[in-house]
Design a protein that fits this description.
Blueprint lengths: L6 H6 L28 H5 L16 H5 L5 E5 L5 E8 L2 E8 L5 E3 L10 E5 L3 E6 L8 E6 L5 E3 L8 E5 L7 E6 L8 E6 L5 E5 L5 E6 L5 E7 L3 E6 L8 E7 L4 E6 L6 E6 L7 E6 L4 E7 L6 E7 L4 E8 L3 E5 L2 H13 L4 E7 L5 E7 L6 E6 L4 E7 L12 E7 L5 E7 L9 E5 L15 H8 L3 E6 L8 H5 L8 H15 L3 E11 L1 H12 L6 E5 L5 H6 L9 H7 L7 H6 L13 E6 L7 H14 L3 E6 L9 H19 L5
Parallel strand pairs: 30-31, 30-32, 32-33, 33-34, 34-35
Antiparallel strand pairs: 1-2, 2-3, 3-4, 5-6, 6-7, 7-8, 9-10, 10-11, 11-12, 13-14, 14-15, 15-16, 17-18, 18-19, 19-20, 21-22, 22-23, 24-25, 25-26, 26-27, 28-29, 29-31
């Protein structure tokens, strides 16, 4: 199994911007939410005036923040002899391979139009990778042989999106993929032969299956269905059996399967918020549809993921987030590995991101709020740790700003956690501020290195990020508090953060800008529309302007969730008045602040029309608006030169309206 499923997050984190170089998957078979919840303002206040140990910080070239990593996404082959990584070739991230212990690497791909989005090993001689076309998110699966360098396209089909269901680690030639070839709204399961290229359908989606899952032997035994509001967990004891419904719940509550129990193949381990506010890790009997034991819970936060050893058939680690990422290690071997690594790598966050089949060689990734991080190889047999690469060696930690967790109260009494980053060596007094709400909206901001935040801090701005109501990881009640609250209490949480900064004397109330992407772009437009006196200027990056047209143009594979989106965002018929009231495009007469808007023409989530219509409306009113449209981008700019153009234009725009110097 590759994917640890949380079908609530699969369904609802629908506007989240893709990361520039995403981690596609790893050999721990787990997707982690690596984030912080924040600490109280009192804790922050006690240290906010202290200066970090820094050198004098120069103005760092914009390109240094947003250029592609020198090397990224390291993973190790099954036999532990090679590692693969992504590195730039003609400004695009491509696949390279290198034998462990040798100096020379071999370039395997030469993509020039688009970054490779992610990759993984299939055995020890083949690397499979994913790439889309111009940001359309119709990712296709390709393969490359490390000896011959020959590249093969397996699922490059017009307007078809590929999902990887299972890499079938024990099978030398097959993987299981999901394709929406037959029907663009749903995904059927196929077995792909990487030697012959043959695709054989092994399970046809009857029309309402939203996810598939395999057992440890690669047998397709779990499915999840939706009618748009209610989700059902389906199970079969073998591939010869029919799927039957085990559990049906409203989408607000769920058992999210993570892996099959190693001792009983009718029992699953997963996260559950059934009968509780915070998701806990539990055992679940697939025959009876009942929880049979709670493995671990945190009283304040949702459990976010697990890791396990397939070789030794044990659960090794449980993850959740509090002030920083937390983990409970259940396995002595993994505990010993982390003990050695923490001794060798003090002061940074440490993750095991890839391993060989024998679990003797690992790829280790570190990072902090001041560094994008470093990759290492680690040999368990002799505790040898070898540095492989810094992701951005041109950025000095001593010149980066500290991201400090904070919290404040909303006007209706909720605790809103977030992060405040101050320019290096500057007092937290009367500063120009960029308010930066996250996308999703059912996602969250995380502690760690953020190139946008560091860039803005280097230009003299304080940056406020907040996990407004609806942000994930804080439990069901906090999540549900956001339903049908776009532009309303969700926006109040952002405004309350601004007022908190002003009341504390940190912000210059005459120099506050708001900038966000995706849902954060909507929040930006809502901010200057519904609180027009709060912001000096605004930058909207692929944001929603019209709730009606947004709902009409969702990708086809979201349509099975449309009833759920009606409950979470609004029903265009039943909630017409509300959606009209909180669609910024209908209220441009209230907007006074200058706007800069950026959009990708191929965006499948937030269509170009969302930006076009508000730009047109603003121009008719004579409101200053700059518009950057990239024809070869989608939901966020991945191509390096487009990132440069966007941030260069944003820097000039902010400097002009915030009274700062543009470089």
């Amino acid at each position: 199994m590759h994917y640890v499923l949380n079908y609530r997050s699969i369904q609802t984190d629908f506007l989240t911007l893709p990361q520039p170089i995403p981690t596609f998957m790893n050999r721990n078979k787990t997707l982690l939410l690596l984030a912080l919840l924040g600490i109280s303002f009192a804790s922050f206040q006690s240290c906010k005036m202290k200066k970090d140990k820094t050198e004098d910080v120069p103005v760092i070239p914009l390109e240094d923040f947003f250029r592609n990593p020198e090397k990224s996404s390291f993973s190790i082959s099954d036999d532990g002899e090679y590692y693969a990584y992504l590195a730039p070739f003609e400004s695009r991230m491509n696949v390279f391979v290198q034998r462990i212990g040798e100096e020379q690497a071999k370039q395997l791909t030469s993509e020039k139009d688009r970054d490779i989005a992610g990759m993984f090993w299939k055995g020890s001689k083949t690397i499979l990778f994913m790439k889309d076309n111009g940001g359309d998110e119709n990712f296709a699966l390709y393969g490359v042989n490390i000896d011959s360098g020959s590249v093969r396209a397996y699922t490059k089909l017009p307007n078809v999106k590929t999902q990887v269901i299972d890499d079938l680690e024990e099978d030398p030639v097959h993987v299981i993929v999901g394709l929406n070839q037959r029907n663009p709204e749903i995904f059927d399961a196929y077995r792909l032969n990487i030697e012959t290229g043959e695709l054989k359908m092994i399970a046809q989606n009857p029309g309402n299956y939203s996810a598939w899952m395999t057992d440890h032997e690669g047998r397709l035994r779990v499915a999840i269905t939706t009618d748009g509001v209610n989700n059902s967990l389906l199970y079969r004891p073998s591939e010869d059996s029919a799927f039957r419904v085990v559990l049906t719940t409203n989408f607000k509550e769920s058992f999210s399967p993570q892996l099959f129990d190693f001792e009983d193949s009718s029992v699953m381990i997963g996260t559950s918020n059934l009968g509780r506010d915070k998701s806990a890790l539990v055992k679940f009997d697939m025959n009876t549809g009942k929880e049979i034991g709670e493995i671990f819970k945190d009283d304040l936060n949702d459990i976010s993921g697990v890791a396990y050893s397939k070789k030794r058939k044990v659960l090794t680690t449980i993850y959740w987030t509090a002030d920083k990422m937390k983990r409970k290690i259940l396995d002595n071997e993994v505990k010993d590995i982390y003990a050695v690594l923490e001794g060798k790598l003090p002061g940074v966050e440490i993750y095991l991101t890839s391993r060989d089949k024998d679990e003797k060689h690992y790829i280790v990734r570190t990072h902090s709020d001041k560094t994008r991080g470093t990759y290492y190889s680690f040999n368990v047999n002799n505790n040898e740790l070898i540095k492989l690469a810094d992701l951005s060696p041109w950025l000095k930690e001593s010149q980066m700003a500290m991201m400090k967790p904070i919290s404040y109260k909303s006007r209706d009494g909720l605790t809103i956690n977030g992060y405040l980053t101050l320019p290096v060596g500057v007092k937290a007094e009367n500063l120009p501020v960029i308010v930066n709400p996250h996308g999703g909206p059912w996602a969250r901001d995380e502690w760690g290195f953020n190139p946008e935040v560091q860039f803005l801090a280097n230009r003299g701005y304080a940056v406020l990020q907040m996990n407004f109501r609806g942000s994930t990881g804080y439990g069901r009640e906090f999540w549900e508090a956001s339903f049908k609250q776009w532009g309303q209490t969700m926006q109040n949480d952002i405004s309350d953060g601004v007022r908190w900064l002003v009341d504390e004397g940190i912000a210059d109330q005459n120099r506050i800008a708001i900038y966000g992407g995706s849902y954060g772009g909507y929040a930006t437009l809502a901010g200057v529309t519904f609180t027009p006196d709060l912001y000096t200027c605004a930058v909207d990056y692929v944001g929603v302007s019209n709730l009606f047209t947004f709902m009409e143009t969702i990708p086809p594979y979201w349509k099975q969730y449309l009833d759920m989106l009606h409950e979470m965002v609004g029903d265009p018929e039943k909630d017409k008045a509300m959606m009209t009231a909180y669609s910024p495009v209908f209220h441009v007469d209230k907007i006074k602040a200058p706007l800069f808007i950026a959009q990708g023409a191929n965006d499948p989530r937030v269509k170009q029309s969302e930006s076009d219509q508000i730009v047109e409306a603003l121009k008719k009113r004579g409101v200053e608006v700059e518009y950057l449209l990239k024809k070869n981008e989608g939901h966020g700019f991945r191509n390096e030169e487009n990132r440069y153009d966007f941030y260069r234009a944003m820097e000039k725009f902010l400097a002009k309206h915030m009274g700062m110097t543009s470089h």
